Amino acid sequence: xxxxxxxxxxxxxxxxxxxxxxxxxxxxxxxxxxxxxxxxxxxxxxxxxxxxxxxxxxxxxxxxxxxxxxxxxxxxxxxxxxxxxxxxxxxxxxxxxxxxxxxxxxxxxxxxxxxxxxxxxxxxxxxxxxxxxxxxxxxxxxxxxxxxxxxxxxxxxxxxxxxxxxxxxxxxxxxxxxxxxxxxxxxxxxxxxxxxxxxxxxxx
Length: 204
What we know:
Number of domains: 1
CATH class: Mainly Beta
CATH superfamily: Galactose-binding lectin
Largest sheet: 7 strands, antiparallel
Order of helices and strands: HEEEEEEEEEEEEEEE
Number of strands: 15
Shape: globular
Number of helices: 1
CATH topology: Jelly Rolls
């Protein structure tokens, strides 16, 4: 029995060490609704927010007094053109190449499909093939990064370009989201309540 324990315990410890923990989580500050969302609305002091696209100037940090449990969320309904939002750690990159995950709580209306976007340390932008679609209520979605296929992404026009085979995700600078569409009010929009990323941190 003692011989078996000596063999199994190192194996389990090594297996656990290979799974990353939470790299960051952002729950937006519980402050009154405002346009546009800014750094002042970010609750995690280690994170910086960036807005991209011609529609980004009216991305809203939204909230309603009713219903009573309405969250404080990012809303695209007023955007007059394509838009994107990203978060980045001020002092670290993240390795998303090994059992990494992205989770968020979101609600989409109309035909909106909310995709993950990444900026790599070399300046390359990517957008995921998978997306979060229509939901009548808030829902938590978890994405396994290893299951995702990626296209290159034009951050200026907020549009996909071409498929990229096996991109190197070992050093990611920014992580965000877009639905590749302008807003259409409450009936055609995307909403993000919070976002969480699992990955190994790397010092810049």
